[in-house]
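User: Let's play a game. I give you a shape written as tokens, and you guess the letters that built it. Ready? Here's round one.
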């Protein structure tokens, strides 16, 4: 399976952040998009609220100019962050009164967010989810000269 350079870099950064405990959904530098953007928070200026899908004036200007950060447009970055926060159990956009998980940085919680983001990144690049392990369990069984797939 051929993947894009932007996908490879994003997955590598997210994987490293997950395993080095530097993935934090409530921090603009350590969230999914923060890590994809090299732990910089410049992407947060594309929207008025963390987790919002609505581009603000700055975001619209960058989007219309075709600007990208590590291969992703402002609109794509906002969607990536939205997917991550939702999968981690947050109401979006983030606010003080919104629902949030009891332990936002638990490994289980972060893994759910990481898995959802990787699935979405693969969708963006029109490839099968690289984390889909179901094909590993598929086998072919030959029954009297007939082939059948079995899970």
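Assistant: Ready! My guess for every position:
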């Amino acid at each position: 399976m051929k993947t894009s350079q932007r996908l490879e870099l994003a997955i590598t950064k997210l994987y490293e952040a997950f395993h080095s405990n530097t993935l934090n959904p409530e921090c603009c530098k350590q969230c999914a998009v923060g890590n994809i953007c090299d732990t910089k928070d410049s992407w947060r200026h594309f929207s008025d609220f963390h987790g919002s899908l609505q581009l603000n004036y700055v975001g619209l200007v960058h989007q219309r100019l075709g600007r990208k950060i590590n291969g992703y447009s402002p609109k794509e970055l906002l969607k990536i962050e939205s997917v991550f926060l939702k999968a981690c159990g947050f109401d979006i956009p983030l606010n003080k009164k919104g629902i949030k998980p009891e332990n936002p940085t638990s490994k289980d919680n972060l893994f759910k967010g990481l898995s959802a983001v990787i699935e979405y990144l693969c969708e963006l690049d029109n490839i099968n989810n690289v984390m889909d392990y179901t094909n590993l369990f598929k086998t072919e069984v030959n029954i009297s000269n007939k082939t059948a797939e079995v899970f």
